[in-house]
Amino acid sequence: MPSLITFEEALSLGELTDHQEIGDLVERAWAVRRENFGDSTDMCSLVNAKSGGCAEDCGFCAQSRYAEADTPMHAMMEPDQILEHAKAAEAAGAHRFCMVTQGQGLSKRDFANIVEGAKLVSEHTNLKRCASIGHMSAERAKSLREAGIQRVHHNVESARSYYPEVSTTVRYEGRLRTIQAVKEAGLETCVGGILNLGETPEQRADRVCKPDYDGPARSFLDPFTRKLCRTSVLDNGRTIFESLIHNLPRAMFIFLPALAVLMMLRILSASTVSLCSPATFAQAIK
User: Fold this and answer.
1) Distance, first Cα to last Cα, the chain
2) What DSSP element (H or E) covers 237?
């Protein structure tokens, strides 16, 4: 399904400043969400299976050794540890479980731990299973599928034209190759990006309206990631709420095929804002 709005319309909506018009945009975005997905949600719990000390220089990421954030450091978890986290997530009400690791890719040993962990989660829980483990070949993607993984998360992060400002050590083309390998293996793709890394409004609209990959986006993060991680990439001067109000409702129209555009609601639920009331948005911008 194509985007419901054009590149030019996305730019125009991003220029709204009138509170009433922004409130109307939020209400319409909410109506689109309700019409297509009702009140359904897909609650995903992540385990940081390998943490800290990444050699890459992605400016938004707390896992990078160049980041200012005080990120925990630990080696790859053993499969039984992964299962323990999955069981805790299921007991807490999660529908989906994602194994996440730092780095551009995994060693043979670390990848084997993810595969065995995925098998255990598949055998001993009712959770849907995802992985976010960096670049991979089609062969590795097939191994994940056979182990019970159903979806692989691999972001492109920003528009191609701005990507060199985001990372100089992880190639944009490598991200696209991984996404293609995942699709060829018969897995779902979860592809998204991060707003307010310093890109222009045109680059932001280009990123979401004209993706370089085939398939829907499923995740869309705003400044909370950068703010919490205290990384080097700067935003455009807007407050968190201002950016959410301007960007996430637009994303709902652009990313309509993807249920996980509800990332907007997940972000808000992590703050002091109500999860389910569009009126909260209007109040936040007054």
Assistant:
1) 35
2) none
User: For residues 199 and 262, what is the distance between their CA atoms, to the nearest angstrom?
Assistant: 23
Whole-number Cα distances in Å, 68 to 54, 71, 231: 13, 9, 6
Q: Look at residue 246 in the predicted model and tell me its pLDDT.
A: 53
Tokens 């897909």 locate to 42
42: number of Cβ within 10 Å: 14
Q: Which residues contact 91 (CB under 8 A, 6 or more apart)?
A: none
Residue 214 near residue 2 (C-beta atoms within 8 A): no
33 residue type, one letter: R
| pTM of the predicted model over 0.85 | no
Tokens found for residue 138: 């089609």
pLDDT at position 204 over 60? yes
What CATH fold (topology level) applies to the domain 41-237?
A: TIM Barrel (3.20.20)
Residue 96 bridge partners (DSSP): 44, 128
Closest of 172, 264, 179 to residue 220, by C-alpha: 264
Q: What is the pLDDT of residue 69?
A: 76
Residue 233 has pLDDT above 50, yes or no: no
The domain locations on the chain are 41-237
CA 45 and chain centroid, separation: 13
Interaxial angle between packed helices 108-124 and 138-147, expressed in degrees from 0 to 180 and rounded to the nearest 10: 30
Please check the confidence at residue 127 and state whether its pLDDT lies above 90. Answer: yes
Measure the CA angle with vertex 213, ends 207 and 216; round to 5°. Answer: 80
3-state SS, residue 119? helix
Furthest-apart CA pair in the chain: how many Å?
A: 55
